[in-house]
Amino acid sequence: MAFDLTTPISDADIDKLKVGDTVTISGYILCGRDAVLPKVLKMIEDGTVGELGVDLHGQVIFHTAVSPAGVGPTSSNKLEIESSIAPLSAAGIKLHLGKGALHPETVAALDKYNAVYAVIPPVTALLGAKTTEQRVVAFPELGMEALHLIKVDKYPAIIGAAHGRSIYE
């Protein structure tokens, strides 16, 4: 099935999604990858994540850097990225966007926290045209790998893991 999602995403939205569904995502989403996600996890552990000024509950995180060339997914199964999925889901992230297969333990963690993983096609130009705003939220010293908040309009993606199942099985 096809669904239009707008951030923040609710548990009821997640409950409807099945592996293989297509979605479009609109609203504000976070962007982060291997350099910044461990820093965000440390802020969650330290209880300082509120200092970001962004509520993680119902949020989407896109595994990407933001550069003048646009945005495109990076491999979500990189150690620093995949190991962030469970704790970020526990902290309220509902949808993780990236590319590549996840380990079964990560798929199970998504199910535990009622979150999903969606595979986004590596089409930088298309996504750039669907990104309407962007700003650095934290860690500007990381340049394009800083934590960004972007506003998107109908980002296309496919649900790759939901409710204990993976499209890669």
Question: How does this structure look, described?
Answer:
The chain is an alpha/beta fold and 169 residues long. The chain has a single domain, classed as Fe-S hydro-lyase, tartrate dehydratase beta-type, catalytic domain (fumarase, Alpha-Beta Barrel), CATH 3.20.130.10. It is 25% helix and 31% strand. The chain has five helices and eight strands; from the N terminus they run βαβαβαβαβαβββ. The protein has helices at residues 11-16, 37-46, 79-90, 104-112, 124-129; strands spanning 2-6, 22-31, 60-62, 95-98, 116-119, 131-138, 147-162, 165-166. A five-stranded mixed beta barrel has the order 2-3-4-5-7. A hairpin with a 2-residue loop joins β7 (147-162) and β8. α2 runs parallel beside α3. The chain is globular and about 40 Å long.
Question: What is the topological layout?
Answer:
Elements lengths: L1 E5 L4 H6 L5 E10 L5 H10 L13 E3 L16 H12 L4 E4 L5 H9 L3 E4 L4 H6 L1 E8 L8 E16 L2 E2 L3
Parallel strand pairs: 1-2, 2-3, 3-4, 4-5
Antiparallel strand pairs: 2-7, 5-7, 6-7, 7-8
Helix pairs in contact: 2-3
In the CATH hierarchy, the architecture is: Alpha-Beta Barrel
Write down the overall mean pLDDT: 92
What's the alpha carbon Rg, rounded to whole Å? 14 Å
Q: What fold name goes in the CATH topology slot?
A: fumarase
Q: Would you identify the regions where 5 or more consecutive residues have pLDDT less than 50?
A: none
Number of domains: 1
